[in-house]
Prior knowledge:
Elements lengths: L5 H7 L5 E5 L10 E3 L1 E4 L2 E5 L7 H9 L1 E6 L2 E9 L5 H13 L5 H5 L4 H4 L2 E6 L1
Antiparallel strand pairs: 1-2, 1-5, 3-4, 4-7, 5-6, 6-7
Amino acid sequence: MSTWTADELTRIGPAEEMEVAFLREDDSLGKPRTVWVVRDGDDLYLRSVYGRTSAWFRGATRRHAGHIRAGGVSKDVTFVEVAPDGPLADELDAEYRRKYKRFAESIVESETTGKAREATVRLEPR
């Protein structure tokens, strides 16, 4: 497992949006999607508000590989699925609420539904 550098975390952590693309079977990248990213310690997390059926999430968890862009960082990544319950899921809910509080509550709450929690991945640099 590779880790993020302090500089990468400093640049990506506060980024409002991230572009994420999954690696297809033919090794090409799928169309980038814009998602919200949160940081917890030295880890970065994404959720799909549409749950496990969203195109980017299905693609990301098929090969568990892709590419991200945020905060001036462009990096190949591994997508690691995260359990939808427990202390980490609660911490991520709180972080989504804190980071994106300037948006309408209904939009932010879409990141903390059971469906979104079931579609959570941790990003690991490759």
